[in-house]
Structure formats: C-alpha cells, structure tokens
C-alpha cells in the first residue's frame, strides 16, 4: 500500500508540500496518496484576499489578515523560489516590492505548472484528528463548508500547514469597552481609506502596527499614534506619526499612556499579533507557542518531537517565507519517505534545545535574520531543493532593514538583485506613497495614458505627501 499523506491547508506552505512531492515524482519517485484540505474556495492562504472580516461567506472564521492595498513588506528577492524564479514567471524584471495580487499570481503560477490542484479538496475544513498509537494512523474528520457533508480519512503522515497569523490576539484595556469610536484588530483591517482625517491609535510595535500605520498616513489620516509594550520601533516617522508607551486606560475618547501623556482618538486598531490555534488537534499534538523564530517541540522546526509522523510547515515567525516553506516541505517529504532517517528522541531533543539556546541569545534583527538563514541552510543541505546563495539573502535582509531605518515611506522604492538569476529588479514606475492602484495590471504595465482615476490618485497622494513628510 502506498503512503497516505494528509495536508491541512493550501496556503504557501501546503502548496510547497504538494510541489515537493511533485518534484520527486518528476525525478521518478512514487507519488503517495495525497489529500490536501482547504477550507477556502481557492489556494494561496493569506494571499487569497477576501473582504470578509470575522466570518467568511461559508460561516467559517475568515482566514486572511491581508488588506486591499497590502504590498510585500520584504524584498521579493528574499522569498524567491529557487525552482521557479520571478524571471520565469513574469518573463521580465519587475520591481522588488510587489503588491499582494502580484505575489499571489507568482505562487499560483508555480503550482499550476505542477498540476497539483487535483490533490486539493476545496471548501473542506478539517474538524478533528485522532492518532492511534497502535496502528500509527491518523483519522481525520472533514466537513464540506458549503454542504455540511462530513467525511473520514485515514493517513500515515499528516502535515499541518494552516498558518498562524489568522486568530487575533486581543488584549484587554481598562475602559476600552466604552470607547465610543471603532475598535478593531489588524486581522479585520481591510483598508485605510475610511480613516482619512481621523485620529488613529494603533496598539503594538511590530509589522502590522508599522504597515497599517503607514497605510493610514498614505490615505490621509490626521494622526497616527503607535503604542508599544516592549519598546518603540524608532523609525523616522512622517510628521503625522508618534510613538507612545503602552495605553494604561481609556476614558471616553481619551487614551492615557504609561508616560503620563494622553490623546483623543477616533479609532483604535489592535496590532497585537496572532495566536497559534489548532482547534482540530488534540492538545498533545498542537503547537503551543508565542510567535517566535523557533517554536519548541519541533525537530528542525518541522517534525513533532513526540510523534514523528506529524509535520508542521510555516510554524515559525518569518523573515524567510516561500523558500523556507519549500525547504521545510522538501525536508518533511524526505522524512516521510524514509530518505532522511530520524535520529533518536534524545538526539532530536538536544538539537531542538541547541536552536532554542541560540534563539534566546539573539541580540538584534540582524542576528535574527542570520539565525533563520542558518536554519534554512540546514534544511536545504539535507535535501535536493535547489541551492541558492543564502548569505546573499541574509545581506538583502540587512540592507532592507537599513533602508527602513533610513526612510520608512521609501524603502519599497528600492531595487534589489535576485540571488538566483542575478537579475536586477526594476525601479518601480510609481513611488509606493503615490501608488493608489495596486492591481497586477497597473503594477506590470504602469500608469495608463487615459486613466483619470490614477491621475487623481497621484494628485491626492501628492497632497497627502505635502501635508506630511
Ligand atoms: P497561510 O497563508 O495562513 O495559509 C493557511 C491555509 O490553511 C489557509 O488557506 C486556510 O484557509 C487553511 N486552513 C486553516 N485552517 C484550516 C482547516 N481547519 N481546514 C482546512 N484548511 C484550513 N509574507 C511575505 O513573504 N511577504 C509579505 O509581505 C507578507 N505579508 C503578510 C501580511 C500579513 C497581514 C500577514 C498576516 C502575513 C504576511 N506574510 C507575508 C506572511 C504569511 O504568513 C506568509 O507569506 C504565508 O502566507 C504563510 O503561508 P502558510 O501556508 O503557512 O499559512
Ligand atoms: P507580531 O510581529 O507577532 O507582533 C505583535 C505585536 O503585538 C508586538 O509588537 C507585541 O509587543 C504586541 N503585543 C502583543 N500583545 C500585546 C499586549 N497585550 N499589549 C501591547 N502590545 C502587545 O504580529 P504582526 O505585527 O501582526 O505581524 C504578523 C505577521 O504579519 C508578520 O509575519 C508580518 O511580516 C506580517 N505583516 C506583513 C505586512 C506586509 O507585508 N505589508 C503587514 C502587516 C503584517 P511585544 O513586542 O511587546 O511582544
């Protein structure tokens, strides 16, 4: 009987797992029996944008936390697949920070070429999984989210690739229940247009706070206050934007901060991160971790320590994304097929501990980028995933972080060189701050000659720019 593999989630990680098996098949390996379960009607995970917030059109929790005008926040050269380059997909150089729709097109293009869609059951949510120690089998219960029909499957190996940036972490603050304005979490933010002229308070000091804050600046918010718990981000913000320590309490529209200052606000956006949540898994199989670069209990960040038939992809915080998911998927594939032998439980535990010790000593963001580079390198060295210059990618991450420090509104206007093809990215035709149409067509083809809306948008953006920085 061939190996039976279940994959939960068809976002970039689940797509990487399908692609990994397909790549081995193309080299002559047997294809296992694969079923991939995806609760949405299409693949792409976070990149499968939906306007739904809270609950989606099928009554499931809305998965994607992305917003309409989201652009990649890291250079595309850091996430490029080494077996499917941007040059191959687009046929010409493009700029380094594509909008969401362009990256969706890229990741979908690779798997369409591999003909793996047939393995995916769309509109199918996994409700529960049991593991039988005696038979070493997983029993999986799924449900069609449109018809309600439930089904049971049995697998030898199970891959969890459901992401961990979908269930919002929502802290309590004194008085927030009587704040008269809008309060939302970043998960439910879809666009900043309606915050034009408004005074926004963002709680949190990481990527969501920074990027949603700058979206709001771009769309003409009157002021943006970023409230931090651990420390300020310290960017050279535009004049609309300030950082304050954590909110201590709300009184009506007033927020009081830990340094004794206060401010009046129209809306609050909690940019307070996400929870690892696996409601379909028993607790002894579920990752329980904060958002860190190396969650405990996963050998090589992938294999569940107490059950080596269970695999997680993309469970870590992410400098690397698509190519790291590939490295993990190739590694998981080779463990599943026995090509990579599992060391003893004690050896695995020691390996996990050494990564955790290194993680605990990381001094700054540069060290974090190097840490994840070393991690990805170890996985790639263990498999036949096409090698690429990981040190060059780490340098790109550091250049990117320096560019952000120099110009938080302008770092996306920089161009980087692909470490795989050597292609230098194009300088984009429109500065990010002026780019109001994020469509694939506009991104690739530039401003249309007769599109008044674009011309208007540019004028508006320039007006906003003149007001701010
Ligand atoms: P996801 O993309 O989250 O996909 C998980 C899939 O699992 C989804 O399709 C979901 O529907 C499905 N699923 C969940 N539960 C079930 C279930 N019970 N049954 C069946 N299916 C289920 N990365 C970058 O490289 N660049 C960026 O610019 C960038 N921007 C980001 C912006 C935001 C706001 C967020 C939240 C993340 C961003 N990321 C970015 C990181 C992003 O997490 C990764 O790029 C990538 O989407 C992770 O892939 P994944 O497959 O692991 O998880
Ligand atoms: P995150 O990186 O996990 O950061 C969570 C933030 O919430 C931290 O600043 C944390 O503060 C703060 N926080 C948590 N609990 C808090 C509390 N009780 N009170 C105050 N602050 C609290 O989450 P994220 O910023 O949402 O980013 C998630 C992912 O989305 C990342 O991968 C990121 O790259 C991606 N993203 C990308 C884009 C883009 O591409 N354009 C935009 C947004 C997000 P501490 O530091 O004190 O823990």
Automatic annotation (TrEMBL):
Coiled coil stretches, renumbered: none
Species: Paeniglutamicibacter psychrophenolicus
InterPro entries: FAD/NAD-bd_sf (IPR036188), Flavin_mOase (IPR000960), Flavin_mOase-like (IPR020946), FMO-like (IPR050346)
Enzyme Commission code: 1.14.13.148
GO terms of molecular function: trimethylamine monooxygenase activity
Record's protein name: Trimethylamine monooxygenase
Signal peptide start-end: none
Keywords: FAD, Flavoprotein, Monooxygenase, NADP, Oxidoreductase
Family, as annotated: Belongs to the FAD-binding monooxygenase family. Belongs to the FMO family.
Enzyme class: oxidoreductase
């Amino acid at each position: 009987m061939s190996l039976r593999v279940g994959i939960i989630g068809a976002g970039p990680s689940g797509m990487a797992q399908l692609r990994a098996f397909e790549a081995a098949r193309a080299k002559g390996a047997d294809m296992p029996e694969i079923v991939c379960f995806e609760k949405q009607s299409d693949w792409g995970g976070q990149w499968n944008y939906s306007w739904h917030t809270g609950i989606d059109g099928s009554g499931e929790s809305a998965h994607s936390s992305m917003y309409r005008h989201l652009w990649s926040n890291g250079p595309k050269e850091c996430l490029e697949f080494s077996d499917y380059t941007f040059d191959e997909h687009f046929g010409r150089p493009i700029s380094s920070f594509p909008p969401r729709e362009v990256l969706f097109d890229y990741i979908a293009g690779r798997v369409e070429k591999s003909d793996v869609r047939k393995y995916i059951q769309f509109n199918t949510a996994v409700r529960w999984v049991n593991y039988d120690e005696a038979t070493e089998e997983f029993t999986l219960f799924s449900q069609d989210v449109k018809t309600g029909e439930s089904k049971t499957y049995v697998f030898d190996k199970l891959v969890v690739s459901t992401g961990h940036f979908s269930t919002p972490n929502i802290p309590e603050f004194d008085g927030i229940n009587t704040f008269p304005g809008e309060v939302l979490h970043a998960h439910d933010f879809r666009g900043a247009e309606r915050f034009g002229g408004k005074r926004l308070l963002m709680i949190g000091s990481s990527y969501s706070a920074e990027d949603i804050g700058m979206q709001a600046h771009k769309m003409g918010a009157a002021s943006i206050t970023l409230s931090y718990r651990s420390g300020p981000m310290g960017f050279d913000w535009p004049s609309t934007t300030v950082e304050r320590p954590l909110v201590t309490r709300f009184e009506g529209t007033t927020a009081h901060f830990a340094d004794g200052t206060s401010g009046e606000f129209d809306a609050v956006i909690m940019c307070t991160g996400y929870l690892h949540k696996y409601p379909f898994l028993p607790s002894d199989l579920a990752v329980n971790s904060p958002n860190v670069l190396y969650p405990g209990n996963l050998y090589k960040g992938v294999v569940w320590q107490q059950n080596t038939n269970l695999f997680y992809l993309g469970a870590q915080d992410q400098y690397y994304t698509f190519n790291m998911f590939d490295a993990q998927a190739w590694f998981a594939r080779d463990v599943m097929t026995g090509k990579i032998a599992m060391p003893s439980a004690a050896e695995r535990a020691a390996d996990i501990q050494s990564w955790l010790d290194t993680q605990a000593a990381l001094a700054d963001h540069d060290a974090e980028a190097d840490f994840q580079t070393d991690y990805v390198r170890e996985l790639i060295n263990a498999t036949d995933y096409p090698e690429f210059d990981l040190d060059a990618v780490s340098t790109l991450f550091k250049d990117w972080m320096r560019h952000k420090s120099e110009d938080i509104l302008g770092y996306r206007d920089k161009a980087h060189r692909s470490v795989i093809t050597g292609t230098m990215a194009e300088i984009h035709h429109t500065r990010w701050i002026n780019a109001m149409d994020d469509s694939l067509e506009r991104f690739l083809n530039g401003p249309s000659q007769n599109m008044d809306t674009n011309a208007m948008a540019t004028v508006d953006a320039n007006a906003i720019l003149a007001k701010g920085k």
